[in-house]
Amino acid sequence: MDLHLKNLFGRFQEQFGSGPGLGPGSGVCLMIVEGISSNIIQSIFRASASLYSSEPWKRLRPGHLFGVRVGKDSDWSGKRQPFQCVQFIGGDGGDIAIYMYRSMSYALKMTDGDSWEMARDPNVEVFRVTYELESLMLPSNKRMVKSLSLEVSGTDRFPIMDVARCMTSGELQFRSPTLEELRLVFAVMKALSLVHPLLLQEEKQVRGLPRMIKFSPFIETVDVQWPSEMGKGHDFVAVTVSHPPGGEAGLRQCTMCEKAIHKDESVCCSHCRATIYCGLDCEKRHWREMHRSVCSLYEAMMSIHKKGMWRRQCSCYSHQPFGLLQCFSTEAQSESWRGLEDGDYPQDLPIQNLNNGRSPGMILLSDWSDYYDLLCLPRSSLVYDILCYPLTLYHILTSVSNHPKNLLLKGKEMTVHYLGPERELDWIKAFAEINHLLNGLGTVQIIMIGPEVPSDLSALNCDLDGYSSWAGAVEAVNNTGIPCFFTDKREEACGNAKTVSRNAGLNFSHPVAPNPFRSPVRSCGKSSNFPCYSNSFILGVVYIRRLV
Q1: Is the pLDDT higher at 277 or at 208?
Q2: In this protein, which residues make up the domain named MYND-type (predicted)?
């Protein structure tokens, strides 16, 4: 009886599928795809076999979602990559497959976190690569495999590719993938087979999910070589894989209708890449009504993207450790430390050489207007977004605190311990601006990591009450009595920092005050609408010994 039931259940699974997926492949034959060639099919099957042999299903479950970005949006029709989120099906048993969704939000709609089964959300399209047993394949696919000598995945499986759409009735509607979608899945499978083994398992696992391994956040970019039959003038394409997908994505707002839209569902102007839209209709309408006249200007403003020090301000490089951005690709860029073209940035020379032979002596600045006038910079220059760090430190040393200012006026050297540097490690050269502004009077030595005894302590954008690791730094200030200055993005955070400092026995040498050298670029707070700017407010503390 048991043997009979086992055979019966086995035949049911073979015909109708099992596990958390959407069932077996629809039997779509790639030979009917318009414009496809036998060489393209062979390349896709080789990529599929390579992914299968890397055995991602040993660790990955449907709850593990991956973001994928292949090339640029302009590489795809509609100026948008068709499928951007990947899910592995079958790690817990059942049909072995990978599913691709148009966005992370669609993947979440289809993935029921409390169930082993897939939800069927109406009108969601899923690109499926189902590894089907050869014995279950339709005759048309068997003939294709035999006639083209296609590579097998494992010992007896071949990929069946289709696009499934969930209908309001709960049924599935299938269509053949397009040639463009097949190019995409080729690059994705090649990249996934290379990068998924690099996922690192976190020590602390998810409670109540013994089969669900938790991985550390991950992002990696690899170059995938196009086969000659798929290439479009490029031998390689950059493929970025991230887990979880959209880690840096948030809600954006359509420039035209002001509708809130998730980042991975938005589109941007294909020319300037600056303006965000909820869809092509708003993009076309905005072009007719206004954007046509400013698009070239916006393109010039966006020209700093991926250049010089500006790279650290962009999420494109968030996977690179602080201080380890790769060197500039060209000699011209290496000389232009601010990443701008010749003539568009102040040369890295002493200030007096730019200001009619100004005599030696400290240059005192009150705000950004003074600095821009000093270097004859146009008000449209964006250097403030990086220079707010060194100029905030210069402001503290020359205008906020009397102790360092007196040392510098006497021509002495000051040592500053700069606490908690991150992106500043990629902007070391920008801090030379401080000595240029000193104009030959005294020097400032900035120690970002080192044992030297400092004259002053500074921590910019510190979020003092948000990280327990600051406790040691606060204790050090308490023990040495050296003046310390913090900056933060929000006035409310400075109020919390005052409480932390007061509890540590520190007094305030400088009250919370606006920083005239804050960045004018507003940041978006995740959980509040407080005004939020880099280095927006300054707070000074010092330990004062009390007589008992």
Answers
A1: 277
A2: 254-295
Amino acid (1-letter code) at residue 404: P
Residue 428 has what pLDDT?
Answer: 82
pTM for the model stands at 0.47
Question: Token pair of 36, please?
Answer: 């496809």
What's at 201, amino acid-wise?
A: Q
DSSP-derived pairing of the beta strands 172-175 and 157-166: antiparallel
Q: Assess contact for 30 and 161: CB atoms under 8 A.
A: yes
pLDDT digits (tens, 9 = 90+) for 409-467: 788 888 888 877 777 887 888 888 888 888 777 788 888 754 444 555 566 666 655 55
Domain spans of the chain, in order of start:
19-243, 251-296, 331-542
CA distances from 6 to 12, 13, 20, 431 (A): 10, 11, 20, 73
Span 183-192, average pLDDT: 95
Q: Tell me the CATH architecture of domain 331-542.
A: 3-Layer(aba) Sandwich (3.40)
What token pair was written down for 102?
A: 């148009």
CA 362, CA 371: separation in Å to the nearest integer? Answer: 13
Q: What is the pLDDT of residues 373-388, one digit of tens each?
A: 888 888 777 788 888 8
Nearest to 245 by CA among 148, 82, 100: 100
In b/e form, how buried is each residue of 509-531, taking b as 16+ CB within 10 angstroms?
Answer: bbebeebbbbbeeeeeeeeeeee
pLDDT of 332? 38
| Crossing angle of helices 491-503 and 470-480, rounded to 10° | 60
Distance separating alpha carbons of residues 138 and 168, to the nearest angstrom:
28
Terminal CA-CA length for the chain: 90
Confidence grade of residue 305 (pLDDT, cut at 50, 70, 90): low
Torsion of CA 219, 221, 222, 225, to 10 degrees: 130
Can you list the positions of beta strands (E) in 307-453? Answer: 413-418, 443-447
- Rounded to 5 degrees, φ, ψ at 521 are -85, 115
Nearest-10 crossing angle of helices 38-53, 179-195: 30
- Say if residues 484 and 541 touch (Cβ distance below 8 Å): yes
Residue in 292, 293, 269, 295 with CA at minimum distance from that of residue 280:
269
Pairing of strands 218-225, 276-277: unpaired
Q: Is the pLDDT of residue 344 over 50?
A: no
3-state secondary structure of 359: coil
pLDDT in tens, 328-340: 444 334 434 334 4
Tokens of 41: 């099919």
